[in-house]
Amino acid sequence: MSDTSAQKVDARHSPKGPDGQKYLASGKTLSMRLWEDEPPGEGDEVHTRPYETVGYVIAGRAELHIEGSMLLLEPGNSWVVPRGASHRYRILDTFTAVEATHPPAQVHGRDE
Known about the structure:
By secondary structure, this protein is an all-beta fold. It has a domain at 34-74 and 86-93. The chain has no helices and six strands. It has strands spanning 22-26, 31-38, 52-66, 69-73, 78-81, 87-102. Strand 3 (52-66) and strand 4 form a beta hairpin. It is globular.
């Protein structure tokens, strides 16, 4: 029997998370979210997450401070945050990016 769980998600109608992220398509072991027009600012506190994140910058610029290093993220750049890595983001210019997480960030309160 083939898998029939294919889905289409329209970001205009996606549910939003507690930090303004839009939840996009989500499978059993992978999910996507959209950070859209995030305003410049100091960003979040240093934290770790129980999932791996890969992302792609659509617009704007941000700094990713991770494990004692800083990566400048600009349009066309992609990045990886390994599971459990200490990190924080600082938005420099209005920022839009897509991230994929494994396992899905929003399942079982991992996104909080």
